[in-house]
From TrEMBL:
This is Recombinase family protein. Keywords: Coiled coil. InterPro entries: DNA_bind_recomb_sf, DNA_bind_recombinase_dom, Resolv_N, Resolvase-like_N_sf, SSR_resolvase, Zn_ribbon_recom_dom. GO terms for molecular function: DNA binding; DNA strand exchange activity. The lineage of its organism: Bacteria, Bacillati, Bacillota, Clostridia, Eubacteriales. It comes from Crassaminicella thermophila.
Length: 539
């Protein structure tokens, strides 16, 4: 029996299983479970799993079609592909050639029908899993990190941006930005860093700025904008010290030599796309920007150390574990609300707290004077209303199954369209081969010229159709992910039934996965559920 081993490793990080390791593990598995006489090894290094455009992968596919081996072994499913469509195509081709497939990490053996079914399901979920999606985004971002461009979005304070258009490796136009410093704002950034090192508190820096009438775009700084500026590597000078700092944190970084002692840094993948919370630094991708660094790496790192120490203290004192619904809770003026006036019982448990609008608190009620909101009561109301929502199955059916059904029918349409596109391409290919045949028999050069022109025209038409097919494939994949997203939200709603059994963190996580935001209007709380357009007014 002959076994093929396929391994893949993507470009950037040195982390993850090395190719050699993947191969050793596969060999070990094969020797334990199969009677293997020969191994054929395929290894792609420096390629992403986002498509199948990989030389060794293509060689493996070609060999499989020639039945050069009996079983294909890989270390993990996503080594083959992180794209469900590519993945299922590969598996179907293997099956058609009577080749078994084994992924040792997931322990699927496609020689059994159950193994095949499990593998499909798991490949679909693997793609959906946030981590995998994040990895795909990461691949793209790493590619961009090397260019040192800022990707747009919320512009860091101290800079304006200049838009430039670049063509990416797929031939698509993409808008990217270059950061241009604004001298007056840069001075404020320097002051904020200086003051924080002196005062060691976001709130104290906020008060200092308000007292000295220092504003951004005519508005006062608040604690979160201050902390955002202090945590952003965009101001930090790229030098050996900052290189070492980020390597130690486990962030992906470019080569050491890129840290030139002059430029500023750019952090990609800093926030989670769904919860918008700051990720652990080990998931950041650091690039060296095209702008100048402003804060010395020594000062920048000192600020991070102070901030982290303060955070640890806050967790120890329990102040971060009071509220179930911050930072989802917003005042109707648009500001976030925070837990305040916390009173504790003798045993340390929380007796009482309010949610207060940050703008109201900051301006002593002059810019917003909304009523405070009872903390325990608000948390309880959100939980109860989620439960009510989850138990109203009729409501859920209406909201989610409607969407799922329309996605299903759209999928049928797309599949039909895909079939007819493939048909058309096939027809045109046949036309070309007939035309080619007719040239072979002809010695009339004028006719040949005419035929060649025609072939060229049909060939261009085929290219257009293939482009259309690619767009359609992308649409089918997006729809499938959307559908799964709905299905997973439904699953999460089922978990709401057990909400009371969960611990504080689990409750918090579940609520954050389901709820988009909660708005306090002074009388009532309005609950906005993710993936749904309508709102639920509670209390
Ligand atoms: Zn307010």
């Amino acid at each position: 029996m002959k076994a093929a081993i396929y391994s893949r490793k993507s470009k950037f990080t040195g982390k993850g299983e090395s190719i050699q390791n993947q191969i050793e593990l596969c060999k070990e598995y094969a020797n334990n479970y199969f009677n293997i006489s020969e191994f054929i090894i395929y290894e792609d290094e420096g390629f992403s799993g986002g498509n199948t455009d990989r030389p060794e992968y293509q060689r493996m596919i070609a060999d499989a079609k020639k039945k050069k081996f009996d079983v294909l072994i890989c270390y993990r499913l996503d080594r083959i592909s992180r794209n469900v469509l590519d993945f299922s195509k590969t598996i179907e081709m293997l099956q058609a050639n009577n080749i078994s497939f084994v992924s040792i990490r997931e322990q699927f053996d496609t020689s059994t029908p159950m193994g095949r079914a499990m593998m499909y399901i798991s490949s679909v979920f693997a793609q959906l899993e946030r981590e995998t999606i994040a990895e795909r985004i990461k691949d793209n971002m790493q590619r961009l990190a090397l260019t040192g461009r800022w990707l747009g979005g919320k512009k860091p304070f101290g800079f304006k941006s200049k838009q430039i258009e670049v063509i990416n490796y797929e031939g698509e136009k993409r808008k990217l930005y270059e950061l241009i410093p604004i001298p007056e704002e840069i001075e404020i950034v320097k002051l904020i860093y200086k003051k924080y090192i002196e005062l060691c508190s976001f709130t104290k820096v906020e008060s200092y700025l308000i007292q000295n009438n220092i504003k951004r775009n005519g508005k006062f700084f608040n604690q979160s904008t201050v902390s955002y500026i202090l945590r952003n590597p965009v101001y930090c000078v790229a030098d050996q010290l900052s290189y070492e700092y980020f390597s130690r944190q486990g962030s992906a970084t470019p080569d050491k030599n890129e840290f030139d002692g002059k430029s500023g840094l750019i952090a990609y993948s800093k926030r989670c796309e769904t919860t918008w919370t700051i990720r652990n630094k080990k998931d950041w991708i650091i690039g060296v920007g095209r702008h100048k660094g402003i804060i010395s790496s020594k000062d920048w790192i000192q600020v991070q150390n102070i901030a982290e120490e303060n955070q640890t203290k806050a967790i120890k004192n329990g102040t971060s574990r009071i509220s179930l619904i911050t930072p989802l809770l917003k005042c109707k003026c648009g500001e976030t609300m925070k837990a305040s006036s916390i009173q504790k019982n003798n045993d340390g448990s929380i007796k009482y707290y309010y949610y207060v609008c940050r703008r109201k608190e900051r301006t002593n009620g002059s810019l917003c004077n909304i009523k405070n909101c009872n903390g325990h009561k608000a948390d309880k109301e959100v939980v109860e209303s989620l439960k009510k929502f989850a138990f109203n199955t009729e409501n859920l059916q209406k909201l989610f199954f409607g969407e799922i059904n329309s996605l299903n029918s759209r999928k049928e349409n797309s599949e039909d369209k895909k079939k007819s596109l493939l048909n058309e391409i096939e027809k045109k290919k046949t036309m070309i081969s007939k035309l080619v045949d007719s040239i072979t028999g002809s010695d009339n050069s004028a006719a040949t010229k005419y035929i060649l022109e025609k072939i060229n025209k049909i060939d261009n038409e085929i290219k257009e159709l293939q482009k259309e097919l690619q767009t359609l494939d992308n649409k089918i994949e997006t729809d499938m992910l959307k559908k799964l997203n709905y299905e997973i939200t439904l699953e999460l709603f089922k978990k709401v039934a057990d909400l009371d059994k969960l611990n504080f963190e689990e409750k918090q996580q579940l609520i954050h996965k389901l709820v988009d935001k909660i708005v306090w209007d002074g009388e009532n709380l309005h609950l906005y559920i993710k993936n749904i357009n309508s709102t639920n007014c509670i209390s």
